[in-house]
């Protein structure tokens, strides 16, 4: 009897373990890029690809006659150089994959005849083409059949009319046996973060879920310049369902009114545009455009529509000159000192800085895209970022500007480099640069240290440039930082 009882315990333990393994794997599922309905958003970061894999990415293109002569360009970097190929596809070709598993495309990256590091191999592959209709397009990275080993890749996409939505499943698609079962990617969830001006988030353009009764606060800085008086800031908001959320723009006084009294006041509001390109009977997006007249901190607040039930997904994009994305800085009037505002958050909860892993950011061939995220750098580390610049004679007098925020302010330095200086690093490990951020004589929070460092300069040639953040040699322990880059002709 004891033996039978023990056998029952063993069976129970094994069953529980199997349930835990199955549950863990089910919960861990997330959009993986295995098909058009699980397509990822391009980030420019290095990704690992294994033998036999296909990685799908998605973007939208908004056609305009003025863009016919301005091609979209995609550059792909691989390690080793022949480990992957990249193709560009339209919605019809994606549907063909869904129905029959066919891998068709209309564009393909080809190796360029350039070998700056003199290793006998092309530096990158490129595709450039003009898209002739608005719609959804896909980028597919395929592991090369000629190279059985795993590898690394990253790609950049530049051009006008691009946006990066979430992947939406085709409602009537019949899946072939060769095609993996697809699921729409889940928007990220916001909990306490974004619950007020002192917990405001940085705009990322990602799809986000908002629940009934919620308000999501975002923050940005604006640096007034007389040259910007005729150039409005523009915000476009996309929602699913189309009228499921509203977006308002607020200044610091209106944020303080919310802290003190819980009042929801604003000076700008997104309104639906009279455009319905997908012919579904609904406006494609809402938009606000306005000219800001003073420097300072501003807020974007997304509110769940009161007449809509259930969660809503949204994203918004922001364009213009003079704005940047800092971490949200609490004002002197904290929510804990305003008990009359029950809706106000009790304390600031800043998002933790990200930590780089693997080869990401360790050199020019593994350079990251400058996203503005707060990042942690350890003693002895260098973090490399890359961006593209398109030279234009009309923009010679419009400098590229980088603002660098370190915590502490002197805990790291930022330099700007060209491809020749990157090559010097590859060959000899030399850290040469042509630009360096310097601390500004400004201390708005009265803590006795400069608020940020800045570099501004005119780039005279099109090409790839690098931003390198170095942990200060006279500083012990990890340091967090973020930076923003603005200027015409910049992309990544």
List key phrases describing it.
single chain; mainly beta; globular; 492 residues; Jelly Rolls; 3 domains; 4 helices; six-stranded mixed beta sheet; 12% helix; disordered N terminus
Give a description of the structure:
The protein has 492 residues and is mostly beta strands. The chain has three domains: 36-163, Jelly Rolls (Sandwich); 189-337, Jelly Rolls, CATH 2.60.120; 354-491, Jelly Rolls (Sandwich). It has four helices and 32 strands. The protein has a six-stranded mixed beta sheet, with no helix packed on it. It has a six-stranded mixed beta sheet with strand order 22-23-31-25-29-28, with no helix packed on it. Helix content is 12%, strand content 33%. It has helices at residues 2-28, 91-100, 252-261, 419-428, and strands at residues 47-49, 54-61, 72-79, 84-90, 107-108, 110-111, 125-129, 135-143, 151-158, 162-163, 188-189, 208-210, 215-222, 233-240, 245-250, 268-269, 271-272, 286-290, 296-304, 312-319, 323-324, 354-355, 375-377, 382-389, 400-407, 412-417, 435-436, 438-439, 453-457, 463-471, 479-486, 490-491. The longest helix is centred in the first third of the chain and has 27 residues, at 2-28.
List the helices and strands and how they pair.
Elements: H1 2-28, E1 47-49, E2 54-61, E3 72-79, E4 84-90, H2 91-100, E5 107-108, E6 110-111, E7 125-129, E8 135-143, E9 151-158, E10 162-163, E11 188-189, E12 208-210, E13 215-222, E14 233-240, E15 245-250, H3 252-261, E16 268-269, E17 271-272, E18 286-290, E19 296-304, E20 312-319, E21 323-324, E22 354-355, E23 375-377, E24 382-389, E25 400-407, E26 412-417, H4 419-428, E27 435-436, E28 438-439, E29 453-457, E30 463-471, E31 479-486, E32 490-491
